[in-house]
Amino acid sequence: MDVSAQAIAVVGSVAFDTIETPIGRAEDVLGGSATYFSLAASFFAPVHLVAVVGEDFPDAEREYLASRGIDISGLEVRPGRTFRWTGRYHEDLNVRDTLSLELNVFADFRPTLSEEVRKAPIVYLGNIDPDLQEAVLEQFDDPSLVACDTMNHWITNSREPLVELLPRLDLLVLNDEEARLLSREQNVARAARRILELGPRSVLVKRGEYGAILFSPESVFAVPAYPLEEVFDPTGAGDVFAGGVVGYLAATGERSEMGLRRAIVYGTVLASYAVEDFGPERLRTLTRDDIERRYRQFVALTEF
Amino acid sequence: MDVSAQAIAVVGSVAFDTIETPIGRAEDVLGGSATYFSLAASFFAPVHLVAVVGEDFPDAEREYLASRGIDISGLEVRPGRTFRWTGRYHEDLNVRDTLSLELNVFADFRPTLSEEVRKAPIVYLGNIDPDLQEAVLEQFDDPSLVACDTMNHWITNSREPLVELLPRLDLLVLNDEEARLLSREQNVARAARRILELGPRSVLVKRGEYGAILFSPESVFAVPAYPLEEVFDPTGAGDVFAGGVVGYLAATGERSEMGLRRAIVYGTVLASYAVEDFGPERLRTLTRDDIERRYRQFVALTEF
């Protein structure tokens, strides 16, 4: 982590995931959008984690998060069980089925931010109800950068509050299917243009194994993914990607187009590591040196 | 075209296509793998076109090809009708149905190359029967660069002759689905590794709107596609891409990794223009200046 890095506050889910892929199965691994984001961002900047868990959340995981420099004072413990998700990936890892979903304590999540968290200059609104994203964003004093993720479910069922939130965002992160659904445009470039008209300063479209495209009013940046011969488990890759992007911006204070582009390459690098093992396992052993080494490999991969 | 450019010989199909897309319909437009390849490559180097057409092939199209500096002395005219294909694209332009296919004179295509064509230093074997590709390749004196395309149909039904051809190729061009089918590996990076083991010097995997990846024993190069807000018709984009790649290599004599990478970016640029109108219409008005302008835009699109 860089000593001059700005603090990031993230709000989202902390969960236990049971994951089946063609390669194997892992039960009750640490998951959730806020977890993946925090772990990735923690390589670059201090993170305030705002989320809720049940009484079943183990001390060992609290200690692990804290050991990453993540402030868990905003990780509320409520009577009941932690959010649980079970999913199965197809041979084509881009396709997955949700086998079960238990919201548990997450169903009543309605956080009140502490004095310290309100001061955070950088905010990441993980994939939760847009009404809740808005209620959380309201509580911050004066963030200089607000990034936000969403998903099909909210685009379909909470379109209005989501659209109202868009003008307040510096960076909207979503995948290509979500961009199409939100814009009602099939073509991704036109979809992103349409979304930009709704107010966010920039739109970052995730394309999984195909990379990402950043759209802003003045420019477009396209980047491939890091090609891997073995993808173990794509769970959380999108949030890890966002954690790398926002983490780099927090570490450097960069807000230029080129800074944002480099941030996206760091996000790409982090995501490429995350999918190498189940859940967040690979992030547990990852070092900042690993990240820099693959960043240089990524430069070599794309230069012409 | 560069005056010092090396000559390219291309063998493949010349056809008339009837194309339906969500945007419109075009009847009997000039098509075929050899046509698209030749038109794209003709921006960079002299091209010998080796193909067959029926007596219905209009003088105007012969004149158009010749006006592009394409040598059509190897464009045989046979009694009967020219190859015809009719296809319909879905809303998702990555998916298309073949509505009809008439091989016509193409069914008995078995070219004998002229003295001049045999001397061509660069050979492109368009998507035809691998036995025929081999029979044509045999006739060349001593080509310094051999590139080759194929498709699912040949991978499934002519696997053995195709695999026998691979060690003789400098560059195999195929899409990701074809790479999976040929290698029997789901992961594209592993698929390409497996194909490299079969003998081609490098494997260029086309991913349509997602770009391309070049695999060689020592390195990997990944490049996104040029994002377009309007894709009119993807027909022929793969052959135009290959025509740009091989054309640039012919124009510059480049055989280095960096040269091949730049060639792939030129192929990407050519393909991005080709899809802006039905069939090869956009290529009719395209200029070398247009190509250089979009190449510079592509640099700006991808730099970080």
Question: What report would you give on this structure?
Answer:
- 2 copies of one chain form a homodimer.
- Chain A is of the alpha/beta class.
- In chain A, 38% of the residues lie in helices and 24% in strands.
- In chain A, strand 13 and strand 14 form a beta hairpin.
- In chain A, helix 4 (130-137) packs parallel to helix 6 (159-165) and helix 10 (257-274) crosses helix 12 (288-302).
- Chains A and B meet through helix 8, strand 14, helix 10 and helix 12 of A and helix 8, strand 14, helix 10 and helix 12 of B.
Please count the beta strands of chain A (DSSP E, at least 2 residues each): 14
Structural class of chain A: alpha/beta
Mean pLDDT of chain A: 96
How many angstroms does the end-to-end distance of chain A come to? 31 Å
Instruction: Work out the oligomeric state of the chains in this entry.
Output: homodimer
- Written as H for each helix and E for each strand, in order along the chain, the element string of chain A is EEEHEHEEEEHEHEHHEHHEEEHHHH
Task: Determine the fraction of residues in helical runs of chain A and give it as a percent range.
Answer: 25-40%
Radius of gyration of chain A: 18 Å
Low-confidence stretches of chain A: none
Secondary structure elements and their pairing?
The structure is a homodimer of 304-residue chains.
Chain A: E1 8-11, E2 15-20, E3 25-31, H1 33-41, E4 47-54, H2 59-67, E5 70-71, E6 75-78, E7 83-89, E8 96-102, H3 115-118, E9 122-125, H4 130-137, E10 145-149, H5 152-157, H6 159-165, E11 171-175, H7 176-183, H8 188-197, E12 202-206, E13 212-215, E14 220-223, H9 237-252, H10 257-274, H11 281-285, H12 288-302
Parallel strand pairs in A: 1-4, 1-9, 2-7, 4-5, 4-6, 9-10, 10-11, 11-12
Antiparallel strand pairs in A: 2-3, 7-8, 12-13, 13-14
Helix pairs in contact in A: 1-9, 4-6, 7-8, 9-10, 10-12
